[in-house]
Amino acid sequence: MYADFAKDFTTEFYDANQWAEILNSSGAAYIVFTSKHAEGYTNWPSSTAFNWNSMAVGPKRDIVGELGEAIRTKTNLHFGLYHCLYEWLNPLYNQDKANNWTTSQFSRTKTTPALYEIVKRYKPHIVWSDGDAEAPASYWNSTTFIAWLYNDSPVKDEVVTNDRWGTDCKCKNGGVWTCGDRYQPGKLQPHKWVNAMTIDRQSWGYRRNADSSQYLSIEELLATFAETVSFGGNMLMNIGPTKEGTIVPIFEERLRQMGQWLNVNGEGIRGTKPWSKQNDTLTSGIWYTKKVDAVYAIVLTWPTDILSLAAPIPSSSTTVSLLGYTEKFQWTRRPSSGIDIQIPPIPFNKMPCKWTWIFKLSNLENI
């Protein structure tokens, strides 16, 4: 079935430099591009995918190589590659599966060589594995590959991996934990983790029949982002390009909106750590991060008159400010515990951003 559509994957409007500019505008620290998914088609001229790669059929170009070059020369983003271990329709894989993984013809001749190839050829800062859900790490030879990746590969000093290297790895071994798609643990984790999620509510790809209600709004994205960061995670947003090689306007808009927001509020996100309290128990829709000298309250809904917070305990020298706004805010200590922040009328043209605001609380007693 997939082979019938390969010729339609033309990417005639694919401009890696344009992609790099759009992706960079999002304020992201890194990108992860799909080198191969479960249908087995590779977006680079892979030696392990004869006549089933982007140079042989469809675009007739090295999609991965072009994007990697643009990201490195036009941006400060880290370049990562997603690689699916298994392939739905590969007879070698299905035979190994039928043999209950006592044979490893597919992983030995297809998956492992492809992984070494993309690392040596494109030197990604991130190797994002997927498609491990049926076989253990021993079948995928994951330990040997990751040992090489961290000790002898050309990216050994900077590479990051995830945890999808076998059925016995997820949320346990590997690099950053993903634990599952759209992972949101709801509590602090003992290990760095990533919420890999989609802007399209239903799909990890591009859907021609999607309407605007089926995409997350910027407010919803920022709410997910705030919760993720407060629990110590990173958020990896998925967008699906078209067969012509373009990023459609609604995805571009969401990326640029995230970047606009981070231009104002990045101080409360980048370089922060989880605080002792992740969210407020008095006022809903408040998430916290911290740095050495300040706690940041991420507020999803603009407060009227007073913002009451239970978690921060002010000292006599506490100051309260709003990121992107010059004036300080008056406050009073709550009778039991916490702080009441006085919210004055602020003209619309003086508001630092349109959605989700961050208050900076310095010199707290319980920082």
UniProtKB/TrEMBL annotation:
Source organism, top-level taxon: Eukaryota
GO annotation (BP), single: fucose metabolic process
Domain Glycoside hydrolase family 29 N-terminal intervals: 2-267
Enzyme class: hydrolase
Residue ranges that the Swiss-Prot or TrEMBL entry lists as coiled coil: none
A single cellular component GO annotation: lysosome
Pfam families to which the protein is assigned, alphabetical: Alpha_L_fucos, Fucosidase_C
Record keywords: Glycoprotein, Glycosidase, Hydrolase, Signal
Domain Alpha-L-fucosidase C-terminal: 278-361
Catalytic activity: a neolactoside IV(2)-alpha-Fuc-nLc4Cer(d18:1(4E)) + H2O = a neolactoside nLc4Cer(d18:1(4E)) + L-fucose; a neolactoside IV(2)-alpha-Fuc-nLc4Cer(d18:0) + H2O = a neolactoside nLc4Cer(d18:0) + L-fucose
InterPro entries listed in its UniProt record: FUC_metazoa-typ (IPR016286), Fucosidase_C (IPR031919), GH (IPR017853), Glyco_hydro_29 (IPR000933), Glyco_hydro_29_N (IPR057739), Glyco_hydro_b (IPR013780)
Family that this chain belongs to: Belongs to the glycosyl hydrolase 29 family.
Task performed by this protein: Alpha-L-fucosidase is responsible for hydrolyzing the alpha-1,6-linked fucose joined to the reducing-end N-acetylglucosamine of the carbohydrate moieties of glycoproteins.
Subunit structure: Homotetramer.
PANTHER family in UniProt: ALPHA-L-FUCOSIDASE, ALPHA-L-FUCOSIDASE-RELATED
Protein name: alpha-L-fucosidase
Lineage: Eukaryota, Metazoa, Spiralia, Lophotrochozoa, Mollusca
